[in-house]
Fold these 4 entries.
Entry 1:
Amino acid sequence: MEKKVKSVPSLADAHLGSRSDMSLEGLRRTFREHVFYTQGRLPVVATTNDLYMALSFTVRDQLLHRWIKTVEQMGRENLKVVSYLSAEFLLGPHLENNMINLGIYDEVRRTAEDAGQDIQALFDQEEEPGLGNGGLGRLAACYLDSLATLEIPAIGYGIRYEFGIFDQEIRDGWQVERTDQWLRLGNPWEIRRPEITCDVGFGGRTESYQDDQGRFRVRWIPHRTVKGVAYDTPILGYRVNTCNLLRLWKAEAVESFEFEAFNVGDYYGAVDQKITSENITKVLYPNDEPVQGKALRLEQQYFFVSCSLQDMLRIYKLFGGDLKQFAGHFAIQLNDTHPAIGVAELMRLLLDENGMDWDTAWDVTRNTFGYTNHTLLPEALEKWPVALFAGLFPRHMEIIYEINRRFLDEVRNRFPGDEGRVARMSLIDESGERYVRMAHLACAGSRAVNGVAELHTRLLQEDVLRDFHDMMPEKFSNKTNGVTPRRFMVLSNPGLSRLITSKIGEAWVSRPEELRRLEQFVDDGDFREAWRRVKHENKQNLARLIHARTGIEVDPSSMFDIQVKRIHEYKRQHLNVLHIIALYNRLKQDPACDLCPRTFIFGGKAAPGYFMAKRIIKLINSVAEVVNNDPDVSRKLKVVFFPDFNVKNTKFVYPAADLSEQISTAGKEASGTGNMKFSMNGALTVGTLDGANVEIREEVGAENFFLFGLTAEEVDSLQRNGYQPMEFYRDNPVLQGVIERLTSGHFSWGDQELFKPLIDSLLYHDTFMLFADFGAYVNAQQQVDAAYRDPERWTRMSILNVSRMGKFSSDRAIREYCRDIWNVKPVRVELD
Ligand SMILES: *Cc1c(COP(=O)(O)O)cnc(C)c1O
């Protein structure tokens, strides 16, 4: 991408001597060199971190050659690059993943072990970049993996948060947040690019003027300017040479001595400015939903979007591109509305900084962007008060008004006399306090709009974005989410991966459709036995970790029933708890009753300000304490809250599950991706017809999925007719028993206040309708119990789940984006 590399290829290639040597001997030598020359240590005093850093640099050396070749190609004419804009990338540790993708994992591991080196300790040393909250950020990371694996030239653009998602501790049953200091010991995977910087303005005013050709022009005079500095991380595909770029921006103060002229000797003022500037990328908002009205959040969004667009224009011009053709060279995808201000920013850059006329600029902009919607929850649709927005971005506000004026003219043209529709579709919500509607800006300014599962896309078209769909149905399509089988099978579940490969070869890793060939072994008793052995080992591994982290002993031969995801009322972890209490009551009444032993495992973080979610965590821990310590029930039931669920932990969790809990209120979960990871690792699902559960059930077969609960339509009509939880409560003695236990203070040392807010919500105004689904859920769980007693039947179902999960590889999803939205083709990267 940088011209220098291009103009002196011989120099670049001359450097590829010893360090690019991927032979075992070469790797060993490079590793020793890094211990000494990079870490500055003699091997005898090297710490675990020194060795981890040296190994990471050794592996990174193997990436750089591929990276430079890939990036160099991006400047080529007639080549289209995907630019994935996301405020979050939840990457997980790099080291193991890169070793797998390079194909050196087994060899290096064996060599290290032969030399008496505990390589696992080095993997454990890596701090994960927790630059995301959950599903949305993890999706971005899976898509980067698939883009590289499919040999699509791509750049991920985002924010280099100094503090990512908080680390979760559990104290006295409550969540405690600890800052995530992921950069403390250094990050060997990033390369700072101090020469790649962008200036980003905030506040101030605009003024108009006439340019030399007498044309009306506008310029923005910001009140303050912040500098963005690029930090690059290589993203290697699986067994290919494509090594794409993740470019994250850090905010710094501009080095400006003009400042001195205004405030002579104001040293502290200058320091303040530095601190204010750096605040922008200081910390990730730990909220799964948009934070209302926080200026810093809006500043973060604009900051990284502006840097990224300026960077793309810079790259494009470097290679002599004609701005009118920009949309032919970059396909920019907006991961939710967080980067939607990019529509106005690209317009500003083209109009004000490049002198383009409005119609041409709008054409370029609209052909460049695609927008992925991630939510149906109305409260999660991002909007910003006009006053806040206009104060920070006066020029963008003007541009948005002009986009809106023209857009609403189009609406009036298409639907004459329908002013209600005009008000509904406006980019500005004028129903009360005025807001900028980011989803509307994204829809108006994009060539393509997509949902993330079939049900979600349908509901988007029928409800949340209905007016947009009426007007431009051709823009809409579905792109069901997927996850990468490299991280979530090969890396996480080596035992299962080896077993699968021993039967059908290893082609399934890049072509998961091949997993279908496992079906022919479903009647093979030895295979099923081996399948169970792998699951049992994975459960032992998780049991050990649970003991280490919580002190709780769990039995790996009990059923592992797992719900891990962000804690949220719509995801209904508390429905799961109600079921546990129902089982507890049954066992208390009849300790000899015939229940299949189960271990209930929960994990997930709550937004620090989310009262109910934090109370649900306390509830889980309180129930766990009583259940685990009651000899009447603890032989049959165990309850565990696994603290600090993150990407690094996922490899112990998903592969160890027998049962996957996907029990959100129908119509609330856009897709889910955890559901896919569980099923790929041989767990069966108990779930509602929500998000991608619908498609998972279609693929694996209804007979291999435990379905329960209301449909999205039933939820909707129940809501409209006035949901009365009492009607369900009155008819259900099991439910009454559960609620009585809770209200009595049985799980809270007699404290009847602790869980009252939760119980009152369930009894009187629960929008997530737990009581409506409770009966069906308990029944479905009885079916689960019956199925688990027959290990042969259960194993068959498990094998069929894995063999039919090919559709949910992120490779499939990315192929669809490439074909339907981005119009990009793979490019082979040749090393010389
Ligand atoms: C996959 C994943 C999620 C998303 O899980 P859902 O069950 O789809 O909500 C959240 N966090 C982490 C760490 C993940 O790996």
Note: The mean pLDDT is 94.
Entry 2:
Amino acid sequence: MEHRDNRSLPDSKGYFGEYGGSFVPPQLQPVLDEITAAYLKIKDDPSFNRELSDLYKHYVGRPSPVFRAERFSAAAGGADIYFKREDLNHTGAHKINHCLGEALLAKRMGKRKLIAETGAGQHGVALATAAALLGLECDIYMGEADIKKEHPNVSRMRVLGARVVPVAAGLGALKEAVDAAFEAYLKDPVNQLYAIGSVVGPHPFPMMVRDFQAVVGREAKEQFAASPGGLPDALVACVGGGSNALGLFTAFLSDDVAMYGVEPSGTGFGSGQHAATLTKGRPGVIHGFKCYLLQEEDGSPSKVYSAASGLDYPGVGPEHSYLKDTGRVSYVCASDAEAIDAFFALSRLEGIIPAIESAHAAAYAVKLAKELGKGKKILVNLSGRGDKDVDFVIGKYGAAYGL
Ligand SMILES: *Cc1c(COP(=O)(O)O)cnc(C)c1O
């Protein structure tokens, strides 16, 4: 099988095929153009890359290990399942990889302040961490409903010195927070840099966040090179916006390796309670870019749901939309129930409590292991740790697992 990598994408306007681009108010376009120009300049600058690699190594704790999960694999009954342990990064997930990149870029551009939206607070905490480390101010826009729900992350951001700005509009959730953060950004693009939380948004964010996350796959490729065969047979990662998945996939796109992006089917398609954008959506525009979108008749984004708050976004990265159409990556689903099963299996068979987001990938790996059979190797991106989820899981699902 011949595959091509996506290094030449996006094009100069930010398109991956028909997806991506920049659908923003005219006054925002010059601001984005300035970020693109600054990023393209520093991206091959040895001193920038040295500084970022040093932080990855000495601050984040990279490279993250690849762990062969023997008991989890045996229970699945087929291929060997390996985990790329992004949960062991400082702050407990992959998001710190691109937050440090964006913060370092802001500093090089002479910005004083980072701003961003956050839903469950994971991106906010990772960005507040990077801001503290690099001596930048940090404003995190968060819906009022989310602030009530995600108390520990709100406290963490405040302790780290970030300002959490409540957003009262609409449902008081992620979508309104994005709108408010963009509005604030437009008021002062000179001193602030918007640091987006995934491979979404207008150009250049999907490209930039992908490039910063690609360290995950580059490391994994090196870590597998020593093993017989030298490559895994399949990669599996969960897809919310799609940053941890592209982080793992990018280095392997031109190799003969199968790839699976796992979306949340929630409580099932019949219930309407899901966030399986690539599986059930159709092309549309959200937050300044074109992608597969779960939308109503009139094109407005649908209300979405997943037990994993990091996966419940009605859009998805434009590069994933492109990779779906080309067929290079297969997009599949895991339900809440399957993810919670994998959450307990990984906890009790390996002593690793995964984020519910990552548990979606682990759940699909169990099915795939049976399909591929013995002797094959599956590498799963364990995007984050599940400390944030334990109370929720016990409260909602504990009884079925003897708790
Ligand atoms: C935010 C988050 C995700 C989803 O974001 P992607 O951009 O799709 O990677 C997945 N896992 C964890 C642990 C997260 O915090």
Note: The mean pLDDT is 96.
Entry 3:
Amino acid sequence: MKIAAVVLALAGFALAQSDSDNRPYELLIHKDGPVCSFVSLQKSQIHKDLLSNPNGRISWKTRVPTGENSASDVHHVLSYDKDLLDAHAESLCPLGIGRDLRTSLDIHRYAGSQQVFKQFEHADHDPPSLKYPPLDIEALGDTGPSSNRVDLVFFADGYTTGERDKFFSDAKRLAEDLSSNQTFYTVKPLLNFWGAFTPSKESGIGVGGKPKDTAFGLYRDGPELRGVLANKSDAALAGCASLGDGCDYAIVLGNDPLYGGIGGEYTSITASEANGPLVLRHELGHSIIDVGEEYDGGYAYFGVNAAPSTPSIGWSHWLSDPDAANGPVRAERSVMPLQAYPWTMMKAYEPWKVKFNSSGTYARHLIKFSLSGIPEAKDLDILLDGKHLKWSPKPGIGIDRWHYDIYNDIPLSDGTHEVQFVLKNSDRTTAQLCSVEVLEFGDEKEFVNDPSYYGAFPTFDLDNKTTYRPTYNSCLMRMVTSPDFCSVCLEGLWLSLLARVDLIDSVSASCVPPSWGPDWTRSISLDLLPLAQFREDGQSGKDRGEAYAVTWRKGGVVLEVHANKTALAVPDSAAPGVYTAEVEFMTDEVRKDEKGRLKASKVFVLDHTDSCAAKAARGEL
Ligand SMILES: *[C@@H]1O[C@H](CO)[C@@H](O)[C@H](O)[C@H]1NC(C)=O
Ligand SMILES: *[C@@H]1O[C@H](CO)[C@@H](O)[C@H](O)[C@H]1NC(C)=O
Ligand SMILES: *[C@@H]1O[C@H](CO)[C@@H](O)[C@H](O)[C@H]1NC(C)=O
Ligand SMILES: *[C@@H]1O[C@H](CO)[C@@H](O)[C@H](O)[C@H]1NC(C)=O
Ligand SMILES: *[C@@H]1O[C@H](CO)[C@@H](O)[C@H](O)[C@H]1NC(C)=O
């Protein structure tokens, strides 16, 4: 069985179906201290690291926020051996498993665009089952087979029965924002987006720490626009688990027009026009590429876009200065003299102020801040050392949250400085100052802020500890208002997705009757992911260097005439043999592929007993 996972034996026409045996089991455990709060075990989709080691297991652990100040450990373990995973679950959860969802669910494949799933039913002797709401599912655009795609599913919170259409239109708007021309656009053929509707009894999400009666119980802790927590967090996890490999990432979408959200094992966001896409892109960057922050003031910096020191950067193949790749990489010269997260409701004419010191040795500086509840420029004065800074709200933002940068091409003097925020309109009762930061930069020679420049830029964490990132501001992991990843993250995105997605969707064989002479023709064809010339939007990706190369071999010998063809046709009588199809995908967006994620191959055997002539003689054709 383990061999079958790699070598696909061609048994007449049955070969496309046997692909499903390729799928391992995935164990998911949430652990809060010693207690396992959530466990699911079910069939998952391939992981290429497991294909090369089919007797092993692979695992990773993340720590995800469960609230503003709490977190839990999430363990993912993949293996072809279910017993091994059962044993693993027992050893990780010595106190037993509170709520268990060992799904042996008969997951209906998506036939048509809409499917209502049955409530999971548990046998009596099992631990109490997790309940998840009934899900009414629609595709949000073109989809491919879930067994070979990364599936992102929007779940509905705070949408009543009458708001079903609003949910699907909000979810579709978000999916399109993320993938129609930016962010995930180039990798879109590897993704499926779905909406999973559950009616809520009440409309909207809770405030002041009180959830409403909604499917997942999303609420804000206070009146301020900050995190959005889920009261029925397990319901979202169970909802996703209930879809098997039809749900790889759950997104709980709250029916609320203003900023809010939180990342984690699933992402919660709101339908805010300005902030919904912004929060979602950034959180999916964390969970799909598995990278930490790039903005200053966070606590986790790791993954392809972060390095603890300049000699250890992992993106030398992207550096703009080719000499730097061989010699020491220069750190761009910058410092962060001030960082504050006030998250404070502002009172009219009571200035919020903060002091900071500058060394006076930097050529330029930047004031960064984010706020909400202030729709007009005249409502707020921002002063640096008593001088007014020019500020205007993002057009159309209303009372929603937004991020602003005020850049000054002049040095700050040596000594103490003060920034002040003064609200000048007492009717603005929801005005909130969220974050304030001051950065200083060297001159153009010491700090290159050209967006296309790749180097080593210092990032300052919560405690002012420095790590390095690839670009000044070209990545949405830093500049949350930007819709795009930098090249380093985008490469990481391809590699992460292609660990779980095979370039070959399926292989099929057929017999073509003889048109003259006695011989049938045997044909074998590959269904490749719709990339490069197979992109379905009519864009071939040529401008990004996208191409597929296909090499066919028989008994190890290259079949030159079939080079780069997705189908092979051979005379039936000469067909028997061992065939290999090797596929390689190329894109300028990936420069380094150490694990061969952009390659795929299938091996199969054609034998005499299954020849077209033999089948015809048996009356099978
Ligand atoms: C993508 O489309 C949106 C809306 O259709 C548009 O506002 C935006 O400018 C486009 N972005 C790019 C990079 O073309
Ligand atoms: C959910 O809300 C109920 C009622 O307000 C509360 O008793 C319960 O502790 C909350 N659970 C979580 C996980 O927030
Ligand atoms: C961070 O460290 C630098 C260098 O020591 C210092 O100049 C700066 O003021 C510090 N920033 C903060 C916010 O502490
Ligand atoms: C600025 O520097 C002065 C003199 O060293 C020090 O007394 C003061 O605490 C510093 N202020 C801040 C905000 O770090
Ligand atoms: C197959 O296509 C790839 C990508 O376009 C190209 O580099 C390669 O030369 C082609 N091979 C042959 C034999 O034509």
Note: The two ends are 29 Å apart (CA to CA).
Entry 4:
Amino acid sequence: MRCSNLVVMVVLSWIFFASSTHQLRYYETQILLQLRKHLENPMPLAIWENYNGDLCNLSSPPQMIIKCENSSVTELRIMGEKSVKVSEFNGFAIPNQTLSGSFSIDCFVTTLTRLTSLKVLSLVSLGIWGHLPDKIHRLYSLEALDMSSNFIFGSIPSEISRLVKLQTLTLDGNFVNDTIPEWFDSLTNLTVLSLQNNRLKGQIPSTISRIFNFYF
Ligand SMILES: *[C@@H]1O[C@H](CO)[C@@H](O)[C@H](O)[C@H]1NC(C)=O
Ligand SMILES: *[C@@H]1O[C@H](CO)[C@@H](O)[C@H](O)[C@H]1NC(C)=O
Ligand SMILES: *[C@@H]1O[C@H](CO)[C@@H](O)[C@H](O)[C@H]1NC(C)=O
Ligand SMILES: *[C@@H]1O[C@H](CO)[C@@H](O)[C@H](O)[C@H]1NC(C)=O
Ligand SMILES: *[C@@H]1O[C@H](CO)[C@@H](O)[C@H](O)[C@H]1NC(C)=O
């Protein structure tokens, strides 16, 4: 698959350039640039173009925030301009609404999971479409995940229950169209769960009442 070749390239570059200790690692810079490509160069990331400095120093809130610790990205927030303007979504790319038909959420998340220090990830209104892949659980440091206002459909993968540090999960304004999982209460640190404006089915499981703030 196309995305696995990119990963090999990145690992090779990492071997050659891992020596820099203060700046963001070359390896992670390449991953950020790949993510930008996956997201089809959204507006808030235009300033990455022809910028050769440390991406950790380039935040422009609220549209784009990058925070780093020990030369690794710990926080990534991107807010695009593709807010959801349709009421129905059949699972295929929509011109001018979602990312294009060649976007692969699976490849995108594969690349994303190389940023293993990520604690806060917010990807809002970017036209991301597809099923949330199981492998998202590889972001084991994650404390907050927000993918509001995209075109995520299907179910919430049970592997999310392995993100034991998760405190906040927000998927508002997507097309999640399965039942609400029972396992949310196994995430002992989860205090905010927000799934508003989706296409959820069935009852709200009683196990969820332990979570302090939940919104449906
Ligand atoms: C980037 O930020 C670090 C620490 O926040 C600082 O030491 C460094 O001088 C900055 N570099 C640039 C090019 O602004
Ligand atoms: C950064 O390094 C310090 C000291 O080694 C460590 O305590 C801290 O947890 C590290 N932070 C991250 C995000 O890895
Ligand atoms: C969710 O929506 C997709 C796309 O419309 C559809 O293919 C799928 O069958 C739906 N799933 C459920 C559980 O309704
Ligand atoms: C998409 O947007 C472009 C530029 O705004 C416009 O020219 C084009 O007609 C739009 N296409 C559709 C299918 O709406
Ligand atoms: C849950 O939160 C507490 C208090 O902030 C913290 O000590 C603990 O390590 C967290 N648990 C996990 C699995 O991160």
Note: DSSP finds three helices and ten strands in the chain.
